[in-house]
Specification:
The complex is a heterodimer.
Chain A (H helix, E strand, L loop, with lengths): L10 H9 L5 E2 H12 L7 H14 L2 E7 L5 E7 L1 H29 L3
Antiparallel strand pairs in A: 1-3, 2-3
Helix pairs in contact in A: 2-3
Chain B lengths: L5 H33 L4 H12 L2 H41 L1 H30 L11 E9 L6 E4 L1 E3 H7 L5 E14 L6 E8 L3 H5 L5 E2 L14 E4 L1 H8 L9 E3 L4 E7 L14 E4 H9 L10 E9 L5 H21 L5 E9 L10 H34 L1 H10 L3 H38 L12 H28 L2 H10 L4 H36 L10 E8 L6 H17 L5 E5 L13 E2 L14 E5 L2 H6 L3 E4 L13 E5 H8 L8 E3 L8 E7 L14 E5 L11 E5 L5 H14 L3 E8 H44 L1 H9 L4 H29 L1 H4 L11 H27 L3 H6 L2
The chains are: A alpha+beta, B alpha+beta.
């Protein structure tokens, strides 16, 4: 496997928000989804995801409620709020523009390298 | 989800931030380990791997806790603000609903708080605050001389020093600097344009000592302050504004107050009046002025005390040490005189705080100022009690609403807080109104009460603002606490039942009655005070002063110095006297050296038939050198023998007049007529006593009159001091008074300065503390009465409204209208009578404290107490009539159907 990359600042929240698009998840589920989807590309500690979740809860982008997980154990479930959904869409657009711009630069210089 | 009610979950969240977090992280690790185990890891390996994937648990836990707690704190704050906002808007809405009541409450607060703020500013200026522009005032002290009288051991304290005493103190090591000052009334301008002014003579180091900086120009220096020094003056800010129109080129201009032109070299900063709070117009070097006007005799004269002394303590020196050192210097210097019996016993120096009002000679104004503060606090208290009554009435009216709120779930603390908040909001609104009153009305009050104090610097200072807000919050709290507690204590069932029955419980009725009692008692205190002061004032105004006050005027005049010789001046005065007497409308004119409350000369004569005359407690005998017209002009009654005549000239046989006290003191029951007085040191010529006059007031109003004797001016013993005319003008008009001045000036152009003032004007300052007391107590008493009456009226009318059913029932059962009216009025009278009783008892118990402030009126004067009681009962009857009439008009059928 290739060396894991450091996550670019500010994209952690984007990942976490995306994890919640399809419905509420508890903390471990979010961690698992992110790990599976990114396939280990990023050097990411699950604790950092929790930090992101708690921060966004205070900011009002995600809501939290205690419930029962599929293992019949108590767990804290996080879900997107409408503010969070708006923030997610905004971040997605910004990210797309970012990537497009970088990609254009790389394509232009590809021949030289 | 959680089964607990929302409110309590919020309450619990605070403590459970930790618990929540622990549980969440535990849950993560459970899930992680389970999954790994399911994938084939051993439990131990799974735990290690889960820990690796998570990261530093302790560190993350700390970070997460910080995030959560921060959020919880912000939420709590938001809730509190939200609750506060809600409470405030509730309060405003309920205030708006009861507009009349709210207005009444706000007005009551405005009056009470405004009055307190004004009184506080007066007291602060008089007692607490150092005069403005003084730096490091904590080290400054004022010195007094003190000794025990040889005659009766009485303690005599004097703020004035003689020059030799001052000079002896200068080397004292306790003080880094000593300075002297003297305040003088002068006349500025000439002829009819002459205006009175107040000059402050100050030693050269005066400004340095106080640490004050000039606003314009400069101050004079110690080098310039010497006998024969330059004629320079520093203007006060107000004088510069008033007389020079704040002209920017004032430096170099001159002022003339009878001793030639003095050049203006600077202007003092705004509000600077030296060390005292009385008005100062301009400041002159002390030695220059003294040398100019008093010759040089004062340099060695130990009998002439004429200026006040202040000093700055050296660092680390205590007041006690300074007192000890100064006393030893002073006692040592006076020792020979004390041994000869020419000075009192135990001479000493008192080193006291800078403010006169905090020293041994604090005047009556200080006591009155303190009294006024107490009075205004009383009025505020009455206002609070009144407001409490009104608010209680309102909460009773809202009983149903409160009961419903309690049922829904508002906590009792929240309810109490709500009512208190309403009270405080009302008082704060009242405070705003009070500040407006203070700013505009306060200035009027201050100038009316103490007119010769320089009030410039007393605007809306920070302390006043704090006092007003503090008082307002306290008042609001006090007013709200009783209704709040009453509302919170009522049980739900009882309150709902009351609401349908009319809302009057025993406890609320008792609370309101108590409040009315307190209010009435306080009003009694104020009104009794008013009555006592008014009577004192009345007594003192009708006091027999020995002279006729109305129509008596003094005409002070002075020639330009150095332009006219003594003898010429005397001749000019004699001519002026005759010419004044010839003016139509002038009944009598006399010439004299001194005037009551102004100055006096004492001299101990020898009397025939008596070895030596003992000095009475009123002081040495006063000698007056007067012209024959003096007695008629002053209205001084000649009791026996005759007054002076024009034939009592320098060459004629020497004569004298004595007053009654003198005759009695010296010769007892023997007839004084024909006896000889030897006036003047080593005098052998006999001045025959040809008449006895009535005692006349001289320096103290209401005290014992001094023993006095009179000598014709033509047969003068001493070189007379500058003289003044006493004129009797039975029907004074401004034109006539101006004519007097014109006539005097016309005699000789070198007599340029003349000023007329009435005896009444001289009396006013002496009467001031009683006038002050009488005015303020009357004003506050009337205020308290109005407030109490309004309170009684509103409570009674509310009562009637609440008891509609009961009264309707009574009417249905046959009670006449008169009975119904009588019921209400009787209740009012009974409550008031009880309050009057309590108030009277309290007033009587305070009578010993008040007695010293009164004048020849007992603090237990039955007439005053009786009148106040009658007045209050009358007011109660009237206050009860209107609601009573309304009660009588209740239609039984309508009343019984209500609610």
């Amino acid at each position: 496997m290739a060396t894991p990359l450091t996550l670019i600042q500010g994209t952690l929240d984007l990942l976490v928000l995306n994890a919640l698009v399809f419905g509420p998840k508890h903390g471990y589920e979010v961690a698992r989804w992110v790990r599976d989807t990114t396939g280990g590309t990023f050097e990411l500690e699950d604790g950092a995801l929790y930090t992101s979740l708690h921060r966004m809860e205070q900011r009002g982008w995600v809501g939290a409620e205690w419930g029962v997980a599929e293992t019949r154990r108590r767990a804290k479930f996080y879900s997107l709020t409408s503010a969070g959904r708006k923030a997610l869409n905004a971040e997605r657009r910004d990210w797309a523009r970012y990537v497009e711009a970088v990609f254009k630069v790389l394509q232009a210089a590809e021949v030289a390298v | 989800m959680s089964a607990l009610p929302r409110g309590s979950r919020r309450l619990f969240r605070l403590r459970s931030v930790d618990r929540d977090l622990d549980e969440e992280l535990a849950s993560y690790f459970e899930h992680a380990v389970e999954e790994l185990v399911a994938q084939g890891w051993t439990r131990a390996e799974a735990q290690a791997e889960a820990a690796r994937r998570f990261g530093d648990r302790a560190e993350y836990a700390r970070v997460l806790r910080a995030i959560d707690e921060g959020g919880a704190r912000r939420r709590r704050l938001g809730e509190m603000l939200g609750a506060l906002q809600q409470s405030v808007s509730w309060a405003f809405r309920s205030m708006a609903r009861a507009r009349g009541l709210s207005l009444g409450i706000v007005l009551t607060f405005a009056l009470g708080i405004g009055a307190n703020a004004t009184m506080y500013s007066i007291v602060e200026r008089l007692l607490l605050r150092l005069p403005p522009h003084i730096s490091h005032g904590a080290d400054l002290r004022r010195l007094y001389t003190q000794y025990n009288s040889m005659v009766d051991g009485k303690l005599i304290t004097n703020a004035m020093f003689t020059y030799p005493e001052y000079r002896e103190l200068l080397p004292a090591r306790s003080f880094s600097e000593l300075a002297g000052f003297s305040s003088r009334d002068v006349i500025v301008g000439s002829g009819e344009a002459a205006e009175p002014a107040v000059a402050l003579w100050a030693s050269g180091n005066f400004f340095d000592l106080l640490g004050v900086q000039p606003l314009r120009g400069r101050f004079f220096t110690t080098a310039e302050d010497r006998v024969g020094g330059p004629h320079i003056a520093v203007l006060s800010y107000s004088y510069w504004q008033r007389v020079f129109g704040a002209a920017p080129d004032v430096i170099g201009r001159t002022i003339d107050f009878g001793f030639g032109p003095y050049t203006v070299i600077g202007v003092a900063p705004r509000g600077f009046t030296g060390v005292e709070i009385s008005r100062v117009d301009f400041i002159i070097p002390l030695y220059v002025a003294a040398g100019e006007t008093q010759g040089t005799d004062w340099l060695e004269n130990r009998g002439w005390s004429w200026f006040e002394v202040i000093g700055r303590l050296k660092a680390g020196v205590t007041t006690e040490a300074a007192t000890a050192e100064a006393t030893s210097i002073n006692a040592h210097a006076w020792a020979p005189a004390v041994a000869r019996g020419e000075y009192g016993n135990n001479p000493r120096i008192v080193v006291a705080p800078l403010l006169l009002s905090r020293g041994p000679l604090a005047g009556g104004e200080v006591v009155v100022a303190r009294l006024l503060l107490a009075v205004s606090l009383l009025v505020l208290l009455i206002g609070c009690v009144n407001v409490a009554n009104l608010m209680l009435a309102r909460t009773i009216r809202q009983t149903r609403e409160i009961a419903v709120r309690l049922a829904i779930g508002i906590s009792r603390t929240r309810l109490v807080a709500q009512i208190l908040l309403e009270g405080m909001l009302l008082s704060l609104v009242g405070a705003v109104a009070a500040l407006a009153f203070y700013k505009w009305g306060g200035a009027v009050v201050r100038h009316a009460l103490l007119p010769d104090v320089a009030w410039e610097e007393t605007g809306l200072t920070r302390t006043v603002l704090l006092v007003v807000i503090g008082v307002a919050l306290l008042a609001g709290f006090l007013s709200g606490i009783v209704p709040a507690v009453q509302a919170a204590r009522g049980e739900l069932g009882r309150m709902l039942r009351q609401a349908s029955a009319g809302g009057v419980t025993r406890t609320t009725a008792r609370a309101r009655t108590t409040l009315s009692l307190v209010q009435t008692a306080l009003s009694v205190l104020l009104l009794v005070g008013a009555g006592l002061f008014i009577r004192s004032l009345n007594v003192i105004q009708h006091l027999d002063l020995g002279i006729q006050v109305d129509g008596l005027y003094k005409l002070m005049t002075r020639p330009v110095p150095g332009t006219i010789k003594r003898a010429e001046l005397q001749r000019a005065y004699a001519v002026a006297e005759q010419r004044l007497a010839r003016i139509p409308g002038v009944a009598a004119v006399g010439l004299t050296e001194s005037f009551p409350f102004l100055a006096r000369r004492t001299s101990m004569p020898r009397a025939e038939g008596v070895d030596s005359i003992r000095r009475p407690s009123t002081g040495s005998p006063v000698i007056e050198q007067v012209t024959p017209g003096y007695f008629a002009a002053m209205g001084l009654r000649v009791l026996r023998g005759r007054a002076f005549r024009d034939t009592d000239t320098e060459t004629a046989p020497r004569v004298a007049l004595v007053n009654q006290s003198f005759a009695r003191w010296v010769w007892g029951k023997h007839d004084p007529l024909g006896k000889c007085l030897y006036i003047g040191k080593n005098e052998t010529r006999c001045s025959e006593v040809v008449g006895v006059v009535a005692d006349a007031v001289h320096t103290e109003l209401g005290g014992l009159m001094p023993i006095q004797y009179y000598v014709p001016l033509a047969q003068k013993q001493n070189d007379p001091a500058p003289q003044l005319f006493v004129v009797r003008v039975p029907k004074p008009t401004p034109a006539l008074l101006r004519a007097l001045i014109r006539e005097v000036i016309a005699v000789d152009p070198r007599i340029r300065f003349a000023m007329v003032s009435s005896m009444r004007e001289s009396l006013a300052p002496q009467l001031r503390s009683w006038t002050l007391g009488a005015t303020m107590f009357t004003v506050f008493g009337a205020l308290a009465l109005i407030v109490a009456a309004l309170g009684l009226y509103s409570v009674l009318s509310f009562d009637v409204e609440q008891r509609t059913r009961e009264l309707g029932l009574r009417a249905a059962l046959g009670a006449t209208r008169r009975t119904l009216v009588g019921t209400v009025v009787l209740r009012a009278v009974l409550v008031t009578a009880a309050g009057v009783l309590i108030g009277t008892v309290v007033a009587l118990s305070l009578s010993t404290r008040v007695q010293p402030l009164l004048f020849h009126v007992s603090a237990r004067d039955p007439l005053t107490f009786g009148s106040v009681a009658v007045l209050l009962l009358l007011v109660a009857t009237v206050a009860g009539l209107l609601p009573g009439v309304r009660a009588a008009r209740i239609e039984p059928t309508i009343a019984l159907r209500a609610q």
